[in-house]
Design brief:
174 residues; alpha+beta; OB fold (Dihydrolipoamide Acetyltransferase, E2P); 5-stranded antiparallel beta sheet
């Protein structure tokens, strides 16, 4: 077992070299694959928001909530009181918080079965549809055009290499 460490390092190095070689030959596919991945994540986020909206709509209750300090880009915290007097501050914050200011009072909708599932009243995933479409369009404009350019460049290089291989050995190249 004295050589097992160096054999492992050599095997990992060989695998990494093979992966690098494969990636070099498949850049357009990798870029397009990244665009597909981002698109799938955006669609899944939208579907998740839509399902949360359905869960709220199935057992909906309305109440006044206070927007709390400590909110940030990723979540806006609110506090509201349930009919039994229990105060709720959803850990994930309120859904669709655009334009909310700390200290303001807003009307929220929440699920009576899961009070931590809360959204600003009158807002839904459909309000975010233009943003979702815009993000996906932006991803495909940037990454789709980049993948197209990489593929075109690869095709041109292959054509140039094929033309060079067709020339006789002693012929002058332009």
């Amino acid at each position: 077992m004295s050589g097992s460490g160096s054999e492992l390092i050599e095997a990992v190095g060989s695998t990494l070299r093979a992966a690098r070689t494969w990636l070099r030959g498949h850049k357009p596919e990798c870029v397009a694959g990244f665009a597909v991945l981002v698109t799938a994540l955006v669609v899944l986020a939208f579907v998740g928001a839509f399902l949360d909206d359905r869960a709220i709509a199935a057992n909906r209750a309305f109440t006044a909530a206070t927007v709390l300090d400590g909110s940030n880009f990723s979540r806006t915290l609110v506090r509201f009181t349930l009919p039994d007097g229990q105060a709720v501050v959803p850990e994930r914050g309120v859904m669709y918080p655009r334009g909310l200011e700390p200290g303001s009072t807003i009307i929220v909708e929440y699920s009576t079965e899961k009070p931590s599932l809360v959204r600003v009243a009158g807002r839904s995933a459909l309000n975010r549809l233009p943003v979702v479409i815009g993000v996906m369009a932006g991803v495909w404009v940037v990454f789709g055009s980049w993948a197209w350019w990489l593929r075109r460049r690869r095709t041109e290089r292959a054509a140039a290499a094929g033309a060079a291989a067709d020339q006789p050995v002693g012929a002058a190249r332009a």
